[in-house]
Amino acid sequence: MNCISIEADSGQLSAVQALPCVKRVEYVGKGSQQGAPLLDDTRSVVDLPFQNPNQLSTQTQNALMGVSYMHQANFKGQGVLIAVMDGGFVNVDKIMAFRHLFDDSRIVATKNFVEYQTDVYNYHDHGTLVLSCMAAMGEGVVGTAPEADYLLLVTEEYKIKNLAGSDTEYRIEEYNWLFCC
């Protein structure tokens, strides 16, 4: 890969470009990478019901994957750390089907690589939907790994996508994914 991603003002950028080891400089996107803690547990919990109009679909999907057999054999994700990198996790901190993740301290860390902060419970709901397939546990829904530990990481440039009205991937997101690793 042999590259770096930096945040620099115009003077700093000129100094970097003048270095003999720099072949080229490419603008990736505007950002603000200031230090922030990995987990902010100052959330306020409001029990929102989990809306699952496709309960039959959930049961069918779980049956196709053998989830009931895995759960009967006590394979529920315990001892596994799963990183979910997405555009946001709207209301995960308030939906009852995710309550066990907080009660059992299964959300190990949260990080918003777009805003460089710990708040991940806003922005976009796709991460909520993805997480529900793995971690939800409640009436009408059971995830494949409800006892796993989770990292909730915002890597998708939701502001750009909302303005552009598209779900296109952007180069800065690739860097955000690398920062997660």
**Which structural class should the secondary elements be placed in?**
alpha/beta
What is the count of distinct domains?
1
| CA-based gyration radius | 19 Å
Mean pLDDT: 81
- Major sheet description: 3 strands, parallel
**Rough outline:** elongated
Task: Give a verbal description of the structure.
- This protein is of the alpha/beta class and 181 residues long.
- The chain has one domain.
- 31% of the residues lie in helices and 12% in strands.
- The chain contains seven helices and five strands, in the order αααβαβαβββαα.
- Strands 1-5-2 form a three-stranded parallel β-sheet, sandwiched between helices. It has a two-stranded antiparallel sheet with strand order 3-4.
- A hairpin with a 2-residue loop joins strand 3 (137-138) and strand 4 (141-142).
- The longest helix has 11 residues, at 55-65.
- The protein is elongated and about 60 Å long.
- The model is unreliable at 33-41 (pLDDT under 50).
Task: Provide the fold topology.
Elements: H1 10-17, H2 55-65, H3 67-72, E1 81-86, H4 99-103, E2 107-112, H5 126-135, E3 137-138, E4 141-142, E5 149-154, H6 158-164, H7 171-180
Parallel strand pairs: 1-5, 2-5
Antiparallel strand pairs: 3-4
Could you give a quick summary of the protein structure above?
The chain has 181 residues and is an alpha/beta fold. It has helices at residues 10-17, 55-65, 67-72, 99-103, 126-135, 158-164, 171-180; strands at residues 81-86, 107-112, 137-138, 141-142, 149-154.
